[in-house]
Amino acid sequence: VDREQEIIERIARKLRTRNLGHEASRLVLGMGDDAAILRLSRRSDFVVSCDAFLENVHFLADSHPAASVGYKSLARATSDLAAMGATPRFFLLSLALPAKRTGKWLDQFLSGLAQAARGLRMVLVGGDTAENSQVTVNLTVIGEAEPGRAILRSGARPGDAIYVSGTLGQAQLGLELVLRKLHRNSRWQKLLKAHLYPQPRIALGGWLARRRLASAMIDLSDGLSTDLTRLCEASGVGARLRLGQIPAVTVPAGLRRLGLDPLRLALDGGEDYELLFTVHPRGEKELHTAAASLRGGVKLTRIGEITRKKQIILVVSDGRPTSLRPGGWVHFRPRMRWR
Amino acid sequence: VDREQEIIERIARKLRTRNLGHEASRLVLGMGDDAAILRLSRRSDFVVSCDAFLENVHFLADSHPAASVGYKSLARATSDLAAMGATPRFFLLSLALPAKRTGKWLDQFLSGLAQAARGLRMVLVGGDTAENSQVTVNLTVIGEAEPGRAILRSGARPGDAIYVSGTLGQAQLGLELVLRKLHRNSRWQKLLKAHLYPQPRIALGGWLARRRLASAMIDLSDGLSTDLTRLCEASGVGARLRLGQIPAVTVPAGLRRLGLDPLRLALDGGEDYELLFTVHPRGEKELHTAAASLRGGVKLTRIGEITRKKQIILVVSDGRPTSLRPGGWVHFRPRMRWR
How many helices and strands in chain A, by DSSP H and E? Predict the structure, then answer.
């Protein structure tokens, strides 16, 4: 059972609204996708999402650099806008922290946050501060999209190809190094970057939205197995995933010996913030031709197809197909399956 | 020193943006007021604010009813929209809580939240959940205002009259009962309502904005002494406050004996969520005539005047004027002056 999903459903049930009145004309998309869509004019939609980033749940204040905590709090929230194909614009910061972190720690946190804001071209417009026993960060991000162009989770249809950007499992590999206290070893420094400073796929998301190339999209925050399941459930479809085609992280032999398996990391590792999207077969040629023109370039890999049968099947090239269970990222508490 | 203000200024300094580009045309008002104002069309502005509500900082999960925690999390966030004269529309909920609170506690929390949403006519459009050792609530609220009509903190001018809605100190009186463990005593039940279920002044705020009657406005979240200081600083003015005119809470003799002083509660008590606003002398007559027509009725009291000299003076009817220091609400940690 997806514990987070269950709680979200209880919230949605309790907060269900009848008689929307004036709000109805403004609300294009409510709960359940990567972000909500609000419309005030015919020319533009606001796309809104919020994201908690909590000490001892999402990061360890003594192991993770303060600059990474600041950077990542905004980057991960903004990935939800990328997943809609929206252009990031504004954010609000709600920050609670212990008095002992208001000195140098806060300065470095803010430097990391400012670095992310510059890179994402986002403007801080408001917020809230308080004292708390643990560092508690909440980011609300606001983006903009052309009306009708945002890409939802729910549009995948049988026969659509499934694509993923970048390389999967890199962020989880970095997290494993931190959890095993190997992150100060200079030998593995380069492997930490995807974990500490992830880059949401803003340009790719916006490009897919403008060209109407993706039928459905979600960002990979909780791992391929979990997020593909969510996209399929929202679309009322299933999927066939080809194991051999998954662009998995390269794990050095020294770390493989510690039990770090590339495919396991790629399937269940969280926080890659890559985009998972589906494309109608007619759009695939355009996707390949045009993707080359994307500034900076981004690797796109076809990893399977959407199926009618509501089940996710993992196809191993030399074995029998097996069914895939969501085994995504569970933060620092393996006991919990709650995001 | 206002510790919260100091931290907000550090955040603003670090996150300052040059070359706003496309965002500039959308951003009407950024950090530093009760909420930010974003414009997408000529007909309407979005007014956005966020607010953390944290266990052991803003509430005690074992003393405060879960329904009150849910209700108040939204009510207090929405008070920032009332303070701009905006009409509340949407909200996002970021909720982290311990596994032991996911049963009945969560149900009651959601019932209280749903009650507030119905009363305020707001729609939940998104959010985020996680497990955490303490209950951590973050509300982002989105309202709507006619362009140019939102009321800022910065518009007060010398000679303007200072008004306040309702009765001050009621919420703090309720909090004191909880802190002294008197809140289960049936004798004082009625005194808890303003603390547990505050009512943001949406109708009054919107009415003042539509009639352009208030030159500046702020909601009383941290206490009259602190919030009046903030309004004066934002406007670059001072104030003369008449102690005898402050509409202070009535404290039963049995509680006065415990040291609960009505004027102290009214001056420094937090969380009343009443509105503090200034009115040009020309507008006062209209204010009094028209206020009577406000549905439900709301008591408005003139408590002083804005002055040129940047100082807040407290005038006691039979004594010498003294200068007022901000002594507002400091949550559950008297050591901290940080909101």
Answer: 10, 13
Q: Which ranges of chain A does DSSP label H, i.e. alpha helix? A: 3-14, 66-82, 104-120, 170-179, 193-196, 202-210, 224-235, 253-256, 262-268, 284-291
Q: Do B11 and A58 touch (CB under 8 A)?
A: no
Contacts of B228 (CB under 8 A, 6+ apart): B162, B218, B239, B241, B276, B312, B324
With an 8 Å Cβ cutoff, are A44 and B43 in contact? no
Shortest CA distance from B45: residue in chain A: A40
Asked if B129 lies within 8 A of A8 by C-beta distance, the reply is yes
Which one of A4, A30, A44 has the shortest CB-CB distance to B123?
A30
Q: Which of B52, B56, B58 has the CB atom closest to A133's CB atom?
A: B56
Residues 131-170 of A with CB under 8 A from B: 131-134, 136, 138, 140, 142, 144
Tell me what pLDDT residue B332 has.
Answer: 44
- For residues B38 and B28, the answer to whether their CB atoms sit within 8 Å is yes
Residue of A142, A147, A138, A123 whose CA lies nearest to A47: A142
Q: Cα separations (Å) of B321 from B177, B236, B303, B314, B326? A: 32, 21, 15, 5, 16
User: Is A316 near chain B, with CB under 8 Å?
Assistant: no
Q: Do residues B222 and B270 touch, judged by C-beta distance below 8 A?
A: yes
CB contact set of B197 (below 8 Å; sequence gap of 6+): B68, B71, B72, B75
CA nearest neighbour of A129 among A101, A88, A161: A101
Q: Name every chain B residue with its beta carbon within 8 A of the beta carbon of A138.
A: 50, 52, 94, 138
Alpha-carbon radius of gyration of chain A: 20
Residues B168 and B269 sit within 8 Å (Cβ to Cβ): yes
- More confident site: B196 or A296: B196
3-state SS, residue A216: strand
Element (H, E) at B254: helix B253-256
Q: Which of residues 195-254 of B touch A (CB under 8 A)?
A: none
- Residue in the structure block whose two tokens are 């695939």: A284
Are A339 and B130 within 8 A, CB to CB?
Answer: yes
* Cβ pairs bridging A and B (under 8 Å): 240
Q: Report residue B17: phi and psi, to 5°.
A: -115, 130
pLDDT single digits (tens) B118-160: 999 999 999 889 999 999 999 999 999 999 899 999 999 999 9
Q: Which two tokens stand for residue B101?
A: 């609170």
- B203-242 in b/e burial notation, b at 16+ Cβ within 10 A? ebbbbbbeeebbbbbbbbbbbbbbbbbbbbbbbebbbbbb
- The answer to whether residue B60 neighbours chain A at the CB level (below 8 Å) is no
Q: What is the mean pLDDT of residues A68-80?
A: 97
- Smallest CA–CA distance from B25 into chain A, residue: A89
Single pTM value for the model? 0.92
Q: What percent of chain B is modeled with pLDDT above 90?
A: 70
